[in-house]
Write a structure and sequence with these properties.
189 residues, alpha+beta, archaeoglobus fulgidus dsm 4304 fold
Length: 189
Amino acid sequence: MHIKEQSKVIGWNEGPFDFGQSEPTPLVGVITRGGGPVDGVIKREVAVDGLNGTRHISKAIIESKHKEELNLVVLSGITLAGFNVVDISKISEKTNMPVLSVTREKVDLESFKSALKNLPNFQQRWRAVRHAGEISGFELDDHRVYYQTANLSNTEAERALKVMATQSVLPEPIRLAGMIATSLVRGES
């Protein structure tokens, strides 16, 4: 797989939330051509500290009218709405697409594991973390980003990051998804 400037990607990000809130928070997917024009937006909701992120993302992509044109799934980290851990391997398997998870900061896995132990279904959540594999670092425009992949080599992931990071160090589809999701909760971003 080789991401080009016009390759269609979908980036996912969630809206703001309060820990312990009972209502879900918006989950937005933005479809772009590389880091350029927006071709579509998908909205779902995800439970705070829930277990439904993997299912909602996979199902939204599979049911999307854009499915056949998509080349890559990009996530803002492997957690949504607190500790709703997304299994990127399952998303890749269900959608038949590579998945790239990107963060600005490297996760301290021991602290993360300790926090997960305070939630129900610890084993399921930790399995999703392990499925995400090794955390790799990459210098992008004098900033370090960290990423994990499913069915995508490091070389391909780094090429995709270069193509998608057009307005900031984060890939444009997840940056836009975060802005839209925030506006759905707060009225603006």
